[in-house]
Amino acid sequence: MPNTRQAGRLDDRPDSLHVIGNWTITHYARLQAQIDAFKTQAGNGHELDRSIDLSAIETLDTAGAALLIDLLGVERMAATMAQAPELPPARRALLDTMLQAMETPLTPKSHEISKPLAFLAQTGERVEDFWKQQHLLLGFIGLILSALVTNLLRPRRWRMTALVAQIQQTGFNAIGIVALLTFLIGAVVAFLGATVLQNFGATIYTVNLVAFSFLREFGVLLAAILLAGRTASAFTAQIGSMKANEEIDAIRALGLNPVELLVLPRVLAILVTLPILTFVGMLSGILGGALVCLLTLDISALQFFTILQDVAPHHFIVGLSKAPLFAFFIGAIGCLEGFKVSGSAQSVGEHTTSSVVQSIFMVILLDAMAALFFMEMGW
Amino acid sequence: MVSLREDTPRGDDHVLIRIRDLCNRFGEHVVHEHLDLDVYRGEILGIVGGSGSGKSVLLRSIVGLLRPSAGSIDVFGEDLQALSTRRRSLLERRFGVLFQRGALFSSLNLQENVAFPVLEHLGLARAEAEFLARVKLSLVGLPANAALQYPSELSGGMIKRAALARALALDPEVLFLDEPTAGLDPIGAAAFDQLLLTLRDALGLSVFLVTHDLDTLYSTCDRVAVLSQRRVLAADRLEVVEKVDDPWVRDYFNGPRGRAARRHINSSKVD
Questions:
Q1: pTM attached to this predicted model
Q2: What is the per-residue pLDDT for B4?
């Protein structure tokens, strides 16, 4: 066995250039340094016109061969090999293969643009993407609605199994986390109210504060934001990896409609579950508030619920009425982002992030608009 | 080059991978049971077997992606499972693995995909690593402008080639190929066979080749191992394996495709 630990070298003699030793990838950095040194020398009048001796090479792999061919040039290497009958056939075959591979120029054409210009281009793309996204979302909502209408009258095509499975995943499994979070926020709201209202000697209104805020806003908003984080991301990842795996194409090629098959059950499921979760959130938030009132404000449970009865029930309706709207947008954005996934794993991640951000943004935007609307209507 | 095939080394020193008594179980499902196999240095060993006979599972357990349920696998004379992480990583650097579906990193372009192991393991400068990567890509027959493309923009055959380039990136001593010619056109597959032979002869590569491609089997493999009934039914030169008395082996080698491949090889030998 030759000693492969020693890096190969170039021996520059007056009459010929000897290539010696191990030309393998493990010594690549050292070999490259030698070649660079040799090239700077060659630049100073040492023309590479001497004969080249390859007979002292001990080991050679594709990386070493690539370096040598890069140094000598393809034609020079071919000529050298033609004059070296002692070259072992296996090594000759390797060099031949590498010569063939390096005959054509290796550097691909790249079209890079300057940094400020790239920044401008990126900004433009972002703005355009935003509008395209809204356009796409509108189109997609249309697709969902049309699929819904065509399926509504044909109960045989209702996918009950998929629907129920989605309801369990998006709704039932989320009840715990929704209840816990709203309970905690309810307690926090009660604390805040108590602290502020104490100055006016109106701590008793803490009950109204908790009830108002949870019935009208917090119940539905918290549940929707949780679902946006929990479910929109799941929809995107599920549909996205199916897209990356060409499963969506397979569905289309089988003559089926992916919107009907994948999107409808998901959107319908979230339409069913968000109102339920909203109700759970309202109850649990009020319960959190009640507990704080009971423990720190000396408002008994009986008193709490008596005041609660006076809060007009239309607040509950107002809060609940927003749930289906939020749900529809969360579902649609989650699924649409899934369909926009292309090939790579990175793309799945990007679109999952984007779906969560977009759906939370949309929920808050719609909530603000709804608040304005309800205020103007005096509801 | 043909001479190498005649006197394939059989001595103990030449065993590169030694598998003894290997068992692989997934729950109730037994894939391998008491499987023995040797891979010799410098040989191209073809692995054949019906679908679901555990070819890929065998490959995965040798390269250490799957912990066998029982039995031992020695590579370069050492048991991978027993080694420390560092030692194991050093050994694994001497492997090149081509996965069935390429397994290229989808967020990197081809040049970055091939340069990745070089950068990680050898600490070369990026420009050097990318030069090497472009050479490797060209070596497997990809055009220069493919270097900046991403895997999702490529055809299946091009992904296979790029994956081979990545497997060759560190000039490995053992190459594990899982159906390398599936999805290649016949011309590309023939060029692949030739490349494999050239590399084996020049670098002394050992190749563990899982394949269904009878042409590749006949034109490149020194030995063939038949996986059937959870173990290696036979592992020997093709002429010997062909004659093994087993219904599956008979159907495999003497079916219309097997006959055609053999006829082709015999006629090219006469030329």
A1: 0.71
A2: 41
